[in-house]
TrEMBL record:
Domain of life: Bacteria
Protein name: DUF402 domain-containing protein
Domain DUF402: 64-160
Amino acid sequence: MKRKFADRPFWPRIESRRYAQKRVDDESFRGYTSLLALDRVREPLVVEAGGRPLRVADDGYVWLQLFPDGGKHTLTAMFDDRRTVRQWYFDIVKRVGVSAEGIPYWDDLYLDVVAANEREPYLIDADELDDALARGLVTGADYRAAHMEAERVMSDLAAGVQPLPALCRRELGDMLARLPEKGN
C-alpha cells in the first residue's frame, strides 16, 4: 500500500507550486480540502481518457482534493488554467488521515475511478491492485473492499448522487483565495 500526501512533495514534474488546505465541518462535508497550484511544470501530464489524450497537469492548473473523514475514497478535481474541470479522479483508499505535520494523506489501494464527465466513470489500475494482492501488499479483505468501494463510486456517479464533485465546485473559489502569493 502506498501512502500519498496532499501537497505531493516528491512529484518531480512540478517545478513551482503553491499549496493550501483547510478543515471543513458542515452539514455537507466533514474532512479536509486541499488545493495544489501547479504554477510551473517540467512537462504537461497527458493521460488517456476514453481512448483520447487528456491534459490533466500543466502550467496554471490546480488540483483540488477532498479527504472525507472515515472515507474509503478521496476525490481530486483537476482544473485547467481557465478553471474548467479536466478530470474527476477518485482514489480508492484504505484510510485517510493527517500527518504529524498537519498534511492530509491517503493510504492508496491502487484502484481508481476516473471521469472526464461526471456521469461516465470508468475503472483504472485494476492490474495494479491485482499485482499488490499477489505481492502481499494488500490483504484479500482490502482487495474486496477496494472493488466494492469503486463499484459504489461508479454507481453513485452514474446516478448523479455522488456529492463530492458539487462540493469541489463550491470550494474552489475559497481555496484559490487561500493560496499564498506566487513567490512566497
